[in-house]
Amino acid sequence: MKNKYRKLAVIMLTAVCFAGCQQEDIVYPEPDAKVAETYLTLNELTQSPLQVPGPEGTYILKVISDDKWTLSSSQAWCSVSETEGFKYSQVPVSYSENPWNEPRTAELTFLINESQEIKIVTVEQEASETSLAADSKELQYNIGGGEKDITLQTNAVEWNVEVVDEPTHTPVKWCTVTPVTGKGTATLKVTTESNTTEVVRKASLVFTAADKSLSIPVIQADKLEAPVITLDDHNDFLLSWNEITGVDGYKLKVIADQNENTIDIPSGTASYNLDVIDWKGYVGMVSIQLFSYANIGGGTVAQMGSEIIEAHNLFDETSGDGEKGSEYIITKPRHLRNVQQVS
């Protein structure tokens, strides 16, 4: 009877030990993880670098050692989830995507506990494919020239840019860019001079990095663009227009009762509230026209005018001018607010 219980105890102990040993050896790698084919000693692991691709992933090292060891990584992008081991060990090495178009390295340091000997395994990650993109497909300038920003989006550790003439591919002087070299994503300033050639000028902004290039067209008009104006007179007497690149400013011409009033408006502006104008008691129809202008050198000023808009300065356009028998027609909030000006 004693032999029977003794055999049963041995079987149960063996089963528990077997289950425990198996559980310790189990590693559940990520679905796409690459697993080493064989177990290698620490000396064997140090003989050649561990090569991993540019995209993120996991590699399972198989380590055999008669000595207990601890493990650390020199780089944050390369991490280990098992930091100690003994005998047969499987070590998941995880690495993030390489953000640059050049290889990078990390060191896995195995420290043997008893002897304090260090074994280093180098991890080499391949470069990511070079990418070049910009936030503008084309840069357009008016005759007066000007400055515009363009953002280069790239993973290149070094890129260069130059402005070349479109037909001849030679450098141009009328268009410049800064900076001309850099690393990674950057915002550049592209500046053109006034165009006095009387022809459309064309160039290309050419970015190069490693084996890739990107070309962005640069086009400068041969004549000044005329503003396109819109009048919103519902709540305010507001004149708006498309902002024009390369102008030195705008001139607003308002004619009321045969009296002309010219108002200077700085460049970079795209609206003007006509309610601020002192009509000096005048009530009636007014003519409104906006001019863009640019100094193009030699004392020459290019100027282009918008269409002319006719509008009543205070009330509905069917209103009279305040003479005896005429009526003020109120159809909008702005008209009602203007009653106090004539009461």
Automatic annotation (TrEMBL):
Residues 69-126, 168-221 form the BACON domain. Pfam families: BACON (PF13004). Keywords: Signal. CDD domains: BACON (cd14948). InterPro entries: BACON, Ig-like_fold. The keyword Signal applies. The keyword Signal applies. This is BACON domain-containing protein. It comes from Bacteroides thetaiotaomicron (strain ATCC 29148 / DSM 2079 / JCM 5827 / CCUG 10774 / NCTC 10582 / VPI-5482 / E50). The lineage of its organism: Bacteria, Pseudomonadati, Bacteroidota, Bacteroidia, Bacteroidales.
